[in-house]
Amino acid sequence: PYEKVYWPSMCNKISPLDNYSPNSTILKMVNGVLWYYEKVHWGWLRRRAIDFTYDHIKYEDEQTKYIDIGPVNKTMNMLCCWDREGDSPAFRKHGERLVDYLWLAPDGMKMQGYNGSQLWDSAFWIQAVAESGLGNEFVDSLRLAHHYLEITQVPYNTPNMKQYFRHISKGAWPFSTVDHGWPISDCTAEGTKASLALRQFSFIYPSAAQFGSSTSEAIYPSQVTGASATPPPVAGSRDLLTPITDARLMDAVEVMLSLQNPSGGWASYENTRTGGWLEAINPSECFSNIMVDYPYVECSSAVIQAFCMIRKMIPDNPRMKEINESIRRGVAFMKSIQRPDGSWHGSWGVCYTYAGWFGIEGMIAAGVPPSDPAIVKACKFFLSKQREDGGWGESYLSCVKREYIQHPETSQIVNTAWVVLSLMAAHWPDRTPIERGIRLLISRQYPNGDFPQESIVGVFNFNCMISYSNYKNIFPVWALGRYHNTYLKAKM
User: Fold this and answer.
1) Cβ of 307: how many Cβ atoms within 10 Å?
2) What is the mean pLDDT of residues 166-174?
């Protein structure tokens, strides 16, 4: 019976399937001390600790409109709110935001790993359409996408940041929605890149005067009432849209500059505040490298690419000297973490194809010549993994085992798109492997234009996979568009 279980003996009994990061000896000792402390704890210290913790819970709830950073702490915060306040207005606000995490899949209701990837997917889609040259085919869609970028940029810093260990957020873009609001380096970078990519379309920005000055004060229409402050554009309308001005993009630059680490790389949500020794008390068992926000090739490349676009399109900005130095340090970081075989390990996608795409794109954007040994090695690594059908297919086990593992069945369109984008960015001299990959993408497309949903392509913490259902269309379109513009357009 439950009440007769001797829980201290269960503390370190973990299913082998879940035990990806076994508890260290130090953690086992800490668990033993804490179990003993439960019997002799000081009441006044316990009350003070609970009050302190609940204050931080309330802060997180209020700053994220009760969405919280993810579903785990969302539900835990909600339970803590019930314990402390009962059926209070705050608890009801929690209940209203549960639907943000629910996802009705073909095989039943699920809890998402985030409240969506709206900004992330939108930014990639904008860039894919912009580079493909198909913008005039999707005017209404791009205007709506611009509107979403505009209302999702975070318009303020959270109050009392130092007290609650928060980073600046004004000008950042989150992964999902403005209500969620957590600033992330690569999301801010992709939001910046997408905003600048939209400037090529006259149906969004008829005049360059709309961009304003990079030294003026940034104005956010959504500062007061959130997303409802700016209504979405009406289909067929050509009314002027609220511009994402140079000043607002300089706020984004401020966030990205502040997130660069001494190593030259960028982590995701915050700076790398301490060393990997803290992993000794990682209590999760099923995740790896979660105690510290480490620098990643993906985040670093995204910021470098954003800075390169800022440098080109807003050349008179007052942070140019810092941007140039930041790019230099970022490229050096990416080279320093490249593996001897030319690959990079992917921390947010599956896996070496994803990280390699970022690594190559970032260095090429920064002006590293295609003949540079780092780029040549990365391309040769990709070529060594091309399959007989012409594509590339990587298993999610690459993330878990930290080595390239071929997909057990066939090439995957998303992996293939990432690789051919990389080879074209690097101006690889032999078109044959690129064309074989392009043929595979074309062969997989359905008559209605859609692409099939294949194996999972997202990951975090090495051992938790994520579905990105829009990737199957975004990246093949991007790759096909780049191929057309690189090799075919000049012949037409």
Assistant:
1) 27
2) 97
The CA angle 148-365-266, to the nearest 5 degrees, is: 70
Give dist(CA 4, CA 145) in Å, integer: 57
| Phi/psi of residue 247, nearest 5 degrees | -65, -40
Task: Kindly state the DSSP code that residue 371 receives in the 8-state scheme.
Answer: T
Tokens, residue 289: 């490298």
Distance of CA 303 to the CA centre of its chain: 11
Other Cβ atoms within 10 Å of 6 Cβ, number = 6
Q: Alpha helix (H) ranges present in 385-427? A: 397-401, 413-425
How many C-beta neighbours within 10 Å does residue 484 have?
Answer: 16
- CB-based contacts of 472, cutoff 8 Å, min separation 6: 413, 414, 451, 452, 453, 454
User: Annotated active-site positions, please?
Assistant: 186
Q: Are 231 and 151 in contact (CB under 8 A)?
A: no
Computed on alpha carbons and rounded to an integer, the radius of gyration of the chain in Å comes to 24
- Who's near 463: CB < 8 A, 6+ residues apart? 20, 286, 287, 288, 399, 400
What's residue 281's pLDDT? 94
Q: For 352, how many CA atoms within 13 A lie in the half-sphere containing its CB?
A: 29
Q: Do 386 and 392 touch, CB atoms closer than 8 A?
A: yes
**How far is it between the farthest Cα atoms of the chain?**
81
Give the residue among 61, 51, 59, 69 at the shortest CA–CA distance from 94.
61
pLDDT in tens, 191-218: 999 999 999 999 888 888 888 888 888 8
H/E element holding 451? Answer: none
Q: CA 270, 272, 275, 277 torsion: positive or negative?
A: positive
CA distance 180 to 154: 9
Read out DSSP for 245-278? -HHHHHHHHHHHHHTB-TTS-B-SSS---S-GGG
Per-residue pLDDT reduced to its tens digit, 375-406: 999 999 999 999 999 999 999 999 999 999 99
pTM for the full predicted model: 0.94
Q: How many helices (H) and strands (E) does the chain have?
A: 16, 4
Plot region of 171 (φ>0 → left; ψ -120 to 50 → alpha; else → beta): left
Instruction: Give the E-state strand segments of 79-123 in sequence order.
Output: 102-105, 108-111
The pLDDT value recorded for residue 331 is 98
Q: How many C-beta atoms surround the C-beta of residue 45 within 10 A?
A: 10
pLDDT (average), residues 416-426: 98
